[in-house]
C-alpha cells in the first residue's frame, strides 16, 4: 500500500509540475516575451521574410517608445500584425524632402537605410519619396519599413499608430538559427 501511495504521490507531483510549467509558459508569452514571424519584404535588409522574432512586451512599461525601435503593431480589424520601425514620436513634426528625413526641421540620419539607399541611388530612384509635414499627436507614432519602396506604413496605408496598438519591441531574431542576432 505504501508503494501505491508513493507512486500516486509521484504522479500527482509530476502532473502539478507539468501544469505549473504550462501556466508559466502562457504567462511569459502573454506578458513578457512572444514570438512573431516577419511576413513580407518591408523590413529588408534588416529583417527577412520568414524570420522569427522575440518581442519584448514589457519594454514599454519600463520606458517610452524610442525612435529607431523595431516594433510589432497589432491591427485587430484585419487580425494581423506588422513589423515596422518607429520614425516619429508624439509631438514631433516629421517630413521628407529630397529623400532626407527632417524632424522638427532638423535633418536626421537613418543609418539602417544605408544598403537600401545605395540600391535606390544605383537605380536613380528616391528611396522614400517626399511627403508634406505631419504633426504627430500625443500617444501616436509614425512608422516606416526599412525597405521604403515596398512598405505599407504610416505614409501609405497604416496611418499614424496609436501607442496602444504596439505589442512590444523586437529584441532579436531567433530563427533561422544561423541568423540569430539582435534587431536594433
Automatic annotation (TrEMBL):
Family stated for the protein in its record: Belongs to the peptidase S26 family.
Pfam families: Peptidase_S26
Keyword Phosphoprotein part of the UniProt annotation: no
A GO biological-process term: signal peptide processing
Residues in coiled coil: none
Record's protein name: Signal peptidase I
GO molecular function, one term: signal peptidase activity
Active site positions: 42, 84
UniProt organism field: Priestia aryabhattai (Bacillus aryabhattai)
Reactions listed under catalytic activity: Cleavage of hydrophobic, N-terminal signal or leader sequences from secreted and periplasmic proteins
GO CC annotations on file: plasma membrane
Domain Peptidase S26: start-end pairs: 12-175
Record keywords: Cell membrane, Hydrolase, Membrane, Protease, Transmembrane, Transmembrane helix
Keyword Transmembrane helix: yes
Principal subcellular localization: membrane
